[in-house]
Amino acid sequence: MRSRYSAYVTGNLPYLRKTWHPDTCPELSPEELTTQWSRLEVIRSKLGLKKSIVEFKAWYLEGDIEHALHEISLFKLHKKRWVYVEPLSDFPQ
């Protein structure tokens, strides 16, 4: 999660593609990586053997105002690498 956040901050498009599950990875362009991210807050996580869940807030600036993207994300082990799959609506118990 933290490495993907860093990739968004630095505009590292190849890394984002590499860490996104091939079944759900959208077409990404450099123009989509212009958000000015300011900080990452990992709220909680649940590690499993083949899938993991991470709830986080990624803070960004619009002008002088800070906003948060709040997401619960599903990650799966794919070819011996953790990859982002999709957002979830709730944190599973």
TrEMBL record:
Residue intervals of the YchJ-like middle NTF2-like domain: 1-86
InterPro entries reported for this sequence: NTF2-like_dom_sf (IPR032710), YchJ-like_M (IPR048469)
Domain of life, per lineage: Bacteria
Family matches, as Gene3D superfamilies: 3.10.450.50
Protein name: YchJ family metal-binding protein
Lineage: Bacteria, Pseudomonadati, Pseudomonadota, Gammaproteobacteria, Cellvibrionales
